[in-house]
Q: What sequence folds into this?
């Protein structure tokens, strides 16, 4: 069974239906239950929904949100991540995937970890306005499924994913000197704030 | 409160509003009562929870999740922990150093290098995410008794999550706290020569009063003041450590709270019994570190400590950072948590214990820490009988040029300090060191001071125990 060319997946992703594009439930104006979408996807491909503690990853009220509150804590990080999850689910709904057995572990890992990593560095708006990010998503899905496009060798697929990999690029872009400067600044800020008033804490360590 | 606060309005000024943005009119009266009571201690700080409305919503959500997301755990990290780690890996310098791009966290977890206190002490800046907004960062200083004080970056939201965790522990022990802004919820009791003290209200507890106070006589107007203050303000429960609670008994405070929540590690059974009897309430053990926040609470059936927060992953590790066999003893390491400025990745706590993932008859599905051995509380006494906290001794000794030291107090209250001076720096006079120690231990305390340039070199592994006491807490 050969896969359609990349252009077909990109078209499919460009034409992402409204419920997969909008805000997930739990956010202003949001309706799509990401958890239900993921459960449905698993039931369709694998015959059963994943366990409860896995599905919790796709509710808004995830502990992660609180933990990344440093950014403003208004849920933007979670909103971003869940939008990437919806887009990836849409890719996984492509008819060509529904006709073949998919590796469950690969899908599980992609939706939970792979997209968390991607969403940490790329805003979900890029799904709509960047062809390269759409290609990255398609290639991440293919890599997670252990599949490649008919027109490519394994080596070519790997090279191309490395080229569009945002997480890799982030590592390279952040110059070592720039990073060290930021770390020093933060360290200085910690020292400065240590002299200020902290917040009340109700128990002792 | 037994003494009803009057209905008259108390002014909330800008400074108070900045500290406690959600303070209510009744809360302001409660705070006023805490401050203005004729037997109130002298406060040396001002602090509030700094919570905004959105923060409070997040804290409430955390409280809901604390119940809803409990479940069995295993030695491997749960999906939520893997996702949390994946999300931080590209953005936190210390995580980037340890986790290459595309690393399979699930398969390679055990190979991720561990973090230690050293990372927080010397490289805390590398633990803050690249994109973190530092404007709301606050910093706690832990008064460690080993090495230097630690600066722990934190945020008001994460600090406020202590409150629902305390409530959770209380409920698991059959208590039903209902906090309102017309009562005092809790006193955090300390017994140190010097520590931060302040009264405030906590919006996570519906604006109920809270005070961090110190039992040292110098903070109070008269000998009977603590007893009067506790009786009138009537805090619903108390938090503290074994040393402070033992001191509370000695000071003659007769207030009977609904519970005592105590930092747990190594509170002797006999002190616990005495406290429970004298306060006529349950004594609930609690395991928490400044770097990690609360980690465990005593199982109500006495079967160790259940992991308290749902958003952490605990491991027991060997010296090389590999997980020990299931049920075996290892150093407790923590991943996760909710401090946005101090994400923990396999953070070694320095405490040892065993992890039990089996079901517990008490009904909490979260795993348990058994045989937890931490830093045992060490108590010293001044010649007058009052407790002297090792933290205070540490503050005094830090002023002298010592590489390390051993301080021992015998049952007859005599003390002996052995210190290893920093080479090449003029040694202090022993009389000088003795005088500084006597400021804490009493002007007539028997204190021997000697120098030993080889301290720590000969002993097995060079390990020196900085504080040792032959006294028992209940003495
Ligand atoms: Zn239990």
A:
């Amino acid at each position: 069974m050969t896969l359609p060319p990349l252009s077909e997946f990109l078209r499919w992703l460009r034409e992402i239906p409204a419920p997969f594009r909008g805000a997930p439930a739990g956010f202003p104006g949001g309706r799509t239950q990401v958890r239900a979408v993921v459960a449905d996807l698993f039931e369709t491909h694998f015959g059963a929904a994943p366990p409860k503690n896995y599905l919790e990853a796709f509710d808004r009220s995830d502990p992660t949100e609180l933990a990344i509150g440093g950014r403003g804590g208004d849920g933007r990080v979670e909103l971003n991540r869940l939008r990437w999850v919806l887009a990836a689910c849409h890719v996984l709904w492509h008819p060509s995937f529904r006709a073949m057995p998919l590796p469950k572990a690969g899908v599980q890992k992609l939706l939970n970890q792979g997209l968390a990593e991607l969403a940490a560095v790329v805003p979900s708006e890029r799904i709509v306005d960047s062809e390269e990010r759409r290609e990255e998503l398609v290639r991440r899905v293919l890599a997670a499924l252990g599949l490649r496009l008919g027109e490519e060798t394994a080596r070519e697929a790997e090279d191309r994913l490395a080229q569009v990999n945002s997480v890799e690029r982030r590592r390279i872009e952040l110059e070592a000197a720039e990073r060290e400067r930021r770390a020093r600044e933060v360290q200085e800020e910690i020292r400065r704030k240590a002299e200020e008033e902290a917040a009340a804490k109700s128990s002792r360590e | 409160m037994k003494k009803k606060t009057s209905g008259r309005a108390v002014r909330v000024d800008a400074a108070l509003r900045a500290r406690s943005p959600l303070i209510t009119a009744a809360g302001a009266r409660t705070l006023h009562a805490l401050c203005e009571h004729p037997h109130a201690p002298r406060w040396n700080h001002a602090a509030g929870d700094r919570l905004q409305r959105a923060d409070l919503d997040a804290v409430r959500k955390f409280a809901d999740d604390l119940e809803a997301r409990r479940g069995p755990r295993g030695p491997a990290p749960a999906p939520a922990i893997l996702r949390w780690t994946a999300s931080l890996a590209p953005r936190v310098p210390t995580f980037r150093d340890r986790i290459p791009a595309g690393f399979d966290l699930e398969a390679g977890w055990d190979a991720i290098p561990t973090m230690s206190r050293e990372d927080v002490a010397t490289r805390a800046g590398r633990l803050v995410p690249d994109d973190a907004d530092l404007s709301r960062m606050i910093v706690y200083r832990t008064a460690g008794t080993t090495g230097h004080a630690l600066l722990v970056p934190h945020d008001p939201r994460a600090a406020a999550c202590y409150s629902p965790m305390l409530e959770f522990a209380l409920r698991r022990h059959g208590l039903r706290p209902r906090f309102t802004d017309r009562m005092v919820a809790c006193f955090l009791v300390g017994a140190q020569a010097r520590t931060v003290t302040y009264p405030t209200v906590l919006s996570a507890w519906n604006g109920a009063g809270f005070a961090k106070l110190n039992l040292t006589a110098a903070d109070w107007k008269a000998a009977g003041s603590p007893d009067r203050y506790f009786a009138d303000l009537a805090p619903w429960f108390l938090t503290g450590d074994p040393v402070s609670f033992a001191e509370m008994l000695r000071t003659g405070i007769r207030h009977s709270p609904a519970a005592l929540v105590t930092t747990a590690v190594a509170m002797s059974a006999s002190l616990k019994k005495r406290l429970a009897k004298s306060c006529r309430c349950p004594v609930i053990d609690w395991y928490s570190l400044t770097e990690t926040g609360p980690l465990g609470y005593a199982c109500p059936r006495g079967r160790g400590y259940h992991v308290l927060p749902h958003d952490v992953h605990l491991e027991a590790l060997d010296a090389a950072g590999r997980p020990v066999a299931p049920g075996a003893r290892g150093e407790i390491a923590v991943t996760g948590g909710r401090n946005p400025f101090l994400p923990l990745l396999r953070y070694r706590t320095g405490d040892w214990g065993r992890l039990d993932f089996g079901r517990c008859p008490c009904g909490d599905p979260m795993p348990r820490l058994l045989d937890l051995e931490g830093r045992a509380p060490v108590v010293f006494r001044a010649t007058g009988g009052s407790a002297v906290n090792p933290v205070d001794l540490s503050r005094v000794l830090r002023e002298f040029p010592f590489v390390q030291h051993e301080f021992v107090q015998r049952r007859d209250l005599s003390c002996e300090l052995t210190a290893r001076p920093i080479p090449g720096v003029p040694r202090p006079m022993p009389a000088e060191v003795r005088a500084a120690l006597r400021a804490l231990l009493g002007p007539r305390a028997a204190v021997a001071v000697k120098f030993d340039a080889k301290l720590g070199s000969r002993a097995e592994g060079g390990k020196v125990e900085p504080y040792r006491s032959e006294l028992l807490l209940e003495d």
User: Anything to note?
Assistant: The longest helix of chain B spans residues 53-68. The two ends of chain B are 33 Å apart (CA to CA).
